[in-house]
Amino acid sequence: MPALAATLILFGVAGTTPATAEGASATQGVRPAAATAQIAAMPRLASAIPALMLTPADLLPPAPASAADRDNCAHLLSNAKSPAARMVAARGWAVTGEAQVGGYRAVSFVGKMQPGTSGSCQLERGNVGFFRGEKLVALG
Fold first, then answer.
1. I want to staple 104 with a disulfide (CB 3.0 to 4.6 A). Which of 15, 19, 108, 130 is the partner?
2. Of residues 139 and 9, which shows the higher confidence score?
3. How far apart are CA 109 and CA 97, in angstroms?
4. Is residue 20 predicted with pLDDT exceeding 90?
5. CA 48 to chain centre
6. Predicted pLDDT at 32
7. Sign of the CA dihedral with 51 first, then 2, 127, and 130 last
8. Are 76 and 115 in contact (CB under 8 A)?
9. 3-state SS of the chain: helix, strand, coil percent to 5?
10. Mind giving me the DSSP string for 3-25?
11. Which sequence spans correspond to the domains of the chain?
């Protein structure tokens, strides 16, 4: 997988406090502990790559049917080594790479491959999943 400059920053949402994160003013009192913990647990996602937008996610949808057609592009796929990559492959996606990025496992995968000339392939519906163990945290 090429060098990946995306980062996940695990702080509370920037510029908010538990009392103001849901639109309440600081004078309205203290939020219940459960709400405070939930807000504090929300990751703040940032990417150093302008074209890569990160979205919090906890469920990877199944791959489109087109992901099953891999015959002429198998040379571009990666063997799923980590539990996260094996989970992506089990959902039907074609795994193209994986790497450790800080405390996360980044797994790249595609949903469509079209063979081209001279052994080339056009890879479409590409994504990068960021995992903590086998738990999906974000998609890019």
1. 130
2. 139
3. 7
4. no
5. 15
6. 56
7. negative
8. no
9. 25, 30, 45
10. ---EEEE-SSPTT--TTTTTS--
11. 6-47, 55-139
Kindly report the pTM of this predicted structure: 0.67
pLDDT of the residue at 131: 95
* 107 CB neighbour count, 10 Å cutoff: 29
Residue pointed to by tokens 């469920």: 59
Per DSSP, the residues of 39-63 read HHHSPEEEESSTT---EE-S-PPPP
- Is the predicted pLDDT of residue 7 greater than 50, yes or no? no
Q: d(Cα 111, Cα 91) in Å, to the nearest integer? A: 11
Neighbours of 47 (CB within 10 A): 17
- Alpha helix stretches (DSSP H) within 42-124: 83-90
For the sheet containing 135-139, what is the strand order?
55-56, 135-139, 127-132, 104-110, 94-101
SS3 94: strand
Looking at residue 48, its amino acid is A
How far from the centroid of its chain's Cα atoms is residue 93's Cα? Answer: 13
* pLDDT band, residue 67 (cuts 50/70/90): confident
